Amino acid sequence: MVSPYSVSVCMSMLAEGSDDVVRANMIKALLGREATVDELSELMKLMSESLVDVDNTVQFKESNSVWYDNKVVIGGDFSKAVSRYFNAPSYQCDMYSDQSTRQINDWVKDATENLIGKIFEEGAIPRTNAMLANAVYFRGLWSEPFDVSLTSKACFTNASGKNVTVEMMSGQIDRNGGIADGVKVVHLPYGNNAFSMTVILPDGPVDEFVASLTPESWKKLRYLVSNSRILVKIPRFTIGCDGLLLNDALKSIGFESNFAKGTSYDRICDDLPGNLLKVRHSAILKVDEAGSEAAAVTSAGWFSTQTNPDGTIDFTADRPFIFVIDEISTGAILFAGVVNEM
């Protein structure tokens, strides 16, 4: 599981500190087109403000920060830009002591309402001149909660083929989903329907389906509706990742130059070579009858180490499935993942 939104915000802050060539590549990877860094940052600012205000029954919180060592000077233009567009304060501390670890981890706990407790292990020392961080927190109640009395034990078949017993929630929803070629889809809205969780249940192997997804096919699934009543069964689940290194994934989608040996981030501060850049990500999601609670943290630091039928659709997620939590007006994908095992 990852938070694409959190990663995008962190990389957008990094774009403010990149040189012109690297910055142009980053913007194209983030937006799919050419733009100025001011346009990128303004877009991220507007999106953040929209996500906070679009539904007052859903709690969405975003926090950003910059951390740098006592012995370096943070770039003035960079500091002003991330403060203006990302509301990111800059904290100076001894990044070569365990005191900075405690400070950063305390920031993470506060920003994620204690869902994520750390970026660094206790006793570890960052040993970096600078680090950027983004954190998001989400808490949404279903527009139509699942009835707890209908939750019962059921069989779930893991990707390995092993059968396990889960607590399966049951409910029904009208028109919010349907059947496409080789896949069933249901949209479970939160609050006033601005945010929703889309659950995708392919007929075949989940990994093959994920590999075939494109922005265009995702949009078709996101807006798939029918005149059907959908009988929904999905398990309660908790899923997450801890300290996932994103370097290779980011390189594969257009961020190669960020990690090159000759890349410099002098706009942030001196001595930040691209080959030492590490982008790490942690995320967690809890789903139950009432709704969902989720959080994510992304850090970037330089470390030396078709036709829809009428009628009724039976949507029973008793095998691996995909989920996406997004906001409809901005298209922001807050969290996405695959449940392979229960």
Let me know the largest β-sheet: 6 strands, mixed
Q: What class, by secondary structure content?
A: alpha+beta
The overall pLDDT, averaged over residues, is 94
Alpha carbon gap, first and last residue: 14 Å
Oligomer: single chain
The number of distinct helices, counting runs of at least 4 residues, comes to: 8
The coarse overall form would be elongated
Strand order of the largest sheet: 2-1-3-12-11-10
Question: What series of H and E elements makes up the topology?
Answer: HHHEHEHEEEEEEHHEEHEEEEE
Q: How many strands in all?
A: 15
Q: Which spans of ≥5 residues are poorly predicted at pLDDT below 50?
A: none
Beta-strand level of the residues, as a percent range? 35-45%
Q: Please tell me how large the radius of gyration is.
A: 21 Å
The proportion of residues forming helix, as a percent range, comes to: 25-40%
Report on this structure.
The chain has helices spanning 4-16, 20-31, 37-53, 76-86, 98-111, 206-212, 215-222, 247-255; strands at 59-69, 90-93, 130-141, 152-157, 163-174, 177-180, 183-189, 195-202, 229-235, 237-245, 277-287, 291-302, 312-316, 321-327, 333-339. With 342 residues, the chain is an alpha+beta fold. The protein has a six-stranded mixed sheet, with helices on both faces. A five-stranded antiparallel sheet has the order 6-7-8-14-15. Strand 11 (277-287) and strand 12 form a beta hairpin. The longest helix is centred in the first third of the chain and has 17 residues, at 37-53. The model has no long low-confidence stretch (mean pLDDT 94).
